[in-house]
Specification:
Strand 2 (53-54) and strand 3 form a beta hairpin. The strands form 2 sheets. Strands 4-1-5-8-6-7 form a 6-stranded mixed β-sheet, sandwiched between helices. A two-stranded antiparallel ribbon has the order 2-3. It has 10 helices and 8 strands. With 285 residues, the chain is an alpha/beta fold. The chain has one domain (2-6, 32-263): Zn-dependent exopeptidases (Aminopeptidase, 3-Layer(aba) Sandwich). The structure holds zinc ion. Zinc ion binds at residues 44-45, 51, 60, 115, 147.
Length: 285
């Protein structure tokens, strides 16, 4: 039964997709982010969506949940002024649209989606941190296609207006969709760089860089948002590290340091901006 559902093909034209997507792009709510008060941690996949698999040893959904919980603990223990929200804290299925929706509803200031990578080439290894935008390589597009395919586990995903007619089987669909303007692109780029640099510094995983692609889970977030592919479960070395408690903890710690640095930067900039705004109105006609 499940297999049949996964093989269904969605029929839809790129033009109708564009028409459906653009109005949504215009109405994305946003606010200037000068403070980091609420962070949403999104453990990729869960429940009936296991994500990718490494040599039948471990599933992506288990690794992402473990890293997410460890990251949350670091944040809760040391950033007392920050509210930490989780899209899931157990092995349950959460529809893809619901993840950014939770961040938007709670007016989150930062959204981080945690994943593991997979490739038919088992030598492919390392971490990649993504923010929303047009992919520059087929490899980046393939990552987004695989992650976006999670919606195929959702009943009636083809008619779900929350995806704006998006067709996960269509390459054109991915291109049009990734061109949707995101108000937080600069902040997301900065945060991605911090995530990539810090996780690589603190873990044994090597860096494959900061990249862009069209991820449904980042599409409608009204705050800086990134998706981190923490390593390849199809690579023996990455996998043996990603499945250990220590490996997961070091990656979580890297993301935690990235969040701390980003928060410090944003709040410093916010203070400078409000101070210079005051100066410019002080005693001047
Ligand atoms: Zn994933």
């Amino acid at each position: 039964m499940k297999k049949m559902g996964l093989n269904r093909i969605v029929v839809g034209s790129s033009l109708s997709l564009l028409l459906l997507l653009l109005p949504a792009a215009v109405i994305i709510p946003h606010k200037p982010v000068n403070q980091i008060n609420t962070i949403v941690i999104d453990a990729g996949h869960g429940g009936l969506d296991p994500g990718c698999n490494g040599a039948n040893e471990i599933w992506e959904k288990a690794v992402t949940l473990s890293i997410a919980l460890k990251l949350g603990k670091f944040l809760e223990d040391s950033l007392k002024d920050v509210q930490v929200l989780y899209t899931r804290k157990t092995d349950k299925f959460v529809e893809l649209w619901e993840r950014p929706n939770m961040a938007n509803k709670n007016k989150a200031d930062l959204f981080i989606s945690i994943h593991c990578n997979s490739n038919t080439n088992v030598t492919a290894a390392g971490s990649e941190t993504y923010f929303m935008g047009l992919h520059k390589t087929q490899g980046n597009l393939d990552v987004a296609k695989r992650e976006n395919a999670s919606i195929k586990y959702e009943a009636n995903y083809q008619s779900n207006e929350k995806y704006g007619g998006f067709d996960p089987n269509s390459p054109e669909g991915h291109i049009i969709f990734s061109l949707v303007q995101n108000a937080f692109i600069q902040q997301s780029l900065r945060f991605s760089t911090l995530v990539e640099n810090n996780t690589v510094k603190l873990s044994k995983i090597k860096s494959r860089g900061v990249k862009q692609a069209g991820f449904l889970v980042l599409w409608q977030t009204a705050m800086p948002s990134v998706l981190v592919e923490t390593g390849f479960l199809t690579n023996a070395s990455d996998r043996s590290y990603l499945k250990t408690d220590d490996g997961q903890k070091n990656i979580a710690k890297g993301i935690y340091y990235a969040i701390k640095s980003y928060k410090r930067e944003i709040e410093k900039q916010g203070k400078t901006t409000s101070a210079s705004a005051k100066d410019s109105t002080n005693g001047k006609p």
